[in-house]
Design a protein that fits this description.
2 domains, about 0% strand, about 65% helix, mainly alpha
């Protein structure tokens, strides 16, 4: 590409620094203005690169996630809402990095790696920095966006307030609150509660390549294309779930409102509703079946433990907190009194916990496939058998473990139901989810009632 072209772009960037992101995005979406797109890339390159590099160990993987993030921006430019493009890009970058990391984790490895029981050395600083980025992406926008703008992109509080259309005091207050939330979440993950949010400079070559994506300046690597399609698919599925939830909620509210209006006396006078007139619709209990008339999934029977609530599908970030034993890796289970057999069982449990933690991460970003359900059910089933054997004589510890299995079973059931409703999976997938959830509840019931069932 001729040098004159880059000089023109540099001049355009200098003249366009004052143009708001929303205007640049609109110019690109409507007119395919490549200079506007390049300005967006250069403004947000460092924050996007930092998100990708902190999550991924390999710089090559980080470059793939970086390119995929801006390719998604080019494809979704016309549908992005809001004024904070940087906040949108940060979340997409984290999703792309997590998806690529999960894909790499499933890649075949040498048998020698499986035989090595000693965990690989890790860099605590890098692990903490990656965790900060992950937890930042999970914060609500009112806390996340000020952090992205002020800490990662270097804007002043006044500039962030102008971008977000908030008072300056709101930006300052929410920024402080966000840092407290991040420290708390790092502490719960067993990491040093130090929030490191400085941005790293993106490689010049990666920035140039991303800037020319809309005009086909360079061939896009197949890995980047595959990653882009995977993230876009997850975004569509998440949007479909949200739309379905809104439609169902609106329908229930409409029915309730209709019932209330019909139940009101027709003459406008206060009084008791007339006989045979419909009354207001009762609230729906999500833990209890509603019958075939208003629940096409009547195979989902009521739970034996309604007090054990599963996180809502719109807030799966709470799952690791609700199930710390299942997804924690179990590095602290070994005891000096363990014999060889118990050590082997706990080694299996630790490996299973690592698989579940990967599943939790993929579940949050919608990056799992239908065939993976069977693997996770099998993993959970084996872990539940091991837990029951290890703590058969310790009912308190056993109960704590089994309660987490019930929570995970309910989450899987809700995920399966949502996928069946949206036509992604067959109804048999929901049948399997119900069966495993019931199995975990039966084990918990038996642990809490040792005199029942021959124990």
């Amino acid at each position: 590409m001729p040098r004159r072209f880059f000089r023109l772009l540099a001049a355009a960037a200098s003249a366009g620094d004052h143009v708001p992101d929303a205007d640049l995005l609109r110019q690109f979406a409507h007119d395919q203005n490549s200079a506007a797109f390049e300005l967006l890339v250069r403004r947000h390159a460092d924050a996007v690169w930092t998100a990708c590099r902190r999550v991924l160990r390999s710089e090559a993987d980080a470059e793939d996630a970086f390119q995929a993030t801006f390719l998604i921006l080019a494809r979704k430019a016309g549908s992005i809402r809001g004024t904070c493009v940087g906040g949108w890009l940060h979340r997409v970058a984290i999703n792309a990095a997590l998806k690529l990391r999960a894909t790499a984790a499933r890649a075949p490895v040498a048998w020698s790696e499986h035989l090595d029981a000693i965990p690989a050395p890790t860099d605590p600083d890098r692990e903490s920095a990656g965790a900060v980025q992950e937890e930042l992406a999970r914060l609500p926008d009112r806390y996340r966006l000020p952090v992205v703008l002020c800490d990662l992109e270097g804007h002043t509080h006044a500039e962030a307030a102008a971008t977000l259309c908030w008072p300056v005091g709101s930006v300052s207050g929410r920024l402080s609150r966000a840092r407290v939330l991040l420290r708390d979440r790092l502490t719960r993950r067993g990491l040093a509660p130090v929030v490191v949010l400085t941005a790293s400079a993106a490689p010049a070559g990666a920035v140039r390549a991303a800037s020319t994506l809309p005009i086909g300046g360079a061939a896009v690597h197949p890995v980047v294309l595959s990653l882009t399609e995977g993230v876009l698919s997850a975004m569509r599925l998440a949007k479909l779930k949200l739309t379905t939830a809104v439609v169902v909620s609106a329908g229930l509210l409409g029915l309730a409102g209709t019932g209330t209006v019909l139940a009101w006396p027709q003459n406008g006078e206060p009084g008791e509703p007339q006989p045979e007139r419909p009354t207001a619709v009762a609230p729906v209990d999500p833990e209890r079946p509603q019958g075939k008339a208003n629940n096409p999934f009547s195979r989902v029977f009521s739970t034996a433990f309604p007090d054990i609530k599963a996180p809502d599908l719109t807030d799966l970030t709470a799952l690791p907190t609700r199930c710390p034993r299942l997804g924690g890796g179990h590095s602290d289970l070994a005891e000096a009194t363990d014999d060889t057999y118990r050590q082997l069982l706990k080694a299996q449990l630790r490996r299973g916990g690592l698989e579940i933690s990967k599943f939790q991460a993929r579940l949050e970003i919608g990056a799992f496939q239908s065939l993976e359900f069977n693997n996770y059910y099998h993993c959970l089933d084996q872990m539940q058998s091991i837990v029951t054997e290890l703590w058969a004589s310790d009912s308190k510890t056993l109960t704590l473990w089994l309660e987490e299995f019930v929570v995970m079973g309910k989450v899987l059931e809700r995920v399966a139901e949502a996928r069946v409703r949206n036509g992604v999976d067959q109804p048999q997938q929901l049948d399997m989810a119900v069966r495993y959830r019931a199995k975990f509840e039966a084990a918990l019931w038996k642990a809490k009632n040792p005199k029942v069932g021959g124990r």
